[in-house]
Amino acid sequence: MGKNRHKPKQRNFLGKIILYVFIIPIVCAFLVYMNSFITRKWKGIGRFTRVFVEESGVRIESFDPRLKTGILFRLPGELEIMTLGGNGRWKINAMKQLESKYGADWARDSIADYLGISVTGGAKMGITDEIAWKRLKNAGHQQELEMNREADMIREIKDVDSEIYFVLGSNWPVYAGKWFLTTDLAAQDTRITIVNTTDTDGLGSHAARAAESAGLKVVMIINEEIGAEGCTVSGNSGENKKMTAIWMMDVYRCKWNEDGTLDSGDYTLRLGSDYRKWWLGEN
């Protein structure tokens, strides 16, 4: 018995080693992954689009999961954009510095709003999103594009001090509709009415640009000052399970509202004060 009196202690010590070295790290890694999965930005619906704000400038990459094709282009450093939150007009080459002041979300959303596109995320995303992104890039073909003046995507402006900068040209919406078209969304037979329920003019048009560049058909934009708080997507019974409704609820951060008076394929997107606060930077 004297020879075996230390074995229980040895087993207990070995058990602790296994617990701390193997089991706890595995459980922690699993919990981190599950949290990343639950909070993922891209749920497999629509394009996966990212805005990278870097010291060298801003680049945008986007993939269509159905076609397995992607695009990459860089914004001209002298392109001047109107930013969110009433923070004025700034050139792209200043966005990295401004990002440290106003935040990465502000920089990304300002660029997306000015271009009239929907964006999934920025440079930093969760584990699940990064895995999905790498799979799309590895499985697809990516084409590098350029915003150029010849096609009137951008237009040169010279101010009173003879300083030159660029703004979006008249043909940019056409190219945005080609570059950021989501094949599956464009194939849906849908008609969207956007209702701006706030007292801020222009919100409906901004929301429409992102929807149209993705391939959705916006048939009407209405202003109704009824003071709704949140954003809602309305449609007939069962329409909330369709791709268009899921995409709109995700992009505009809306709740579903069943409306039996709407025909199949018809949706109403109501923008409330939450959307206004995001646009004006009041969150």
What do you see in this structure?
The protein contains nine helices and 13 strands. It is α/β, with parallel strands linked by helices and 283 residues long. The protein folds into two domains: 48-168, Nucleotidyltransferase, domain 5; 184-280, 2-Layer Sandwich (Alpha-Beta Plaits). Strand 7 and strand 8 form a beta hairpin. Helix 2 (95-102) crosses helix 3 (104-115). The chain is globular and about 85 Å long. The N and C termini lie far apart (71 Å). The mean pLDDT is 88.
What keyword list fits this structure?
283 residues, alpha/beta, Nucleotidyltransferase, domain 5, Alpha-Beta Plaits, 2 domains, 5-stranded mixed β-sheet, 4-stranded mixed β-sheet, 37% helix, globular
Describe the structure in brief.
The protein is of the alpha/beta class. Helix content is 37%, strand content 24%.
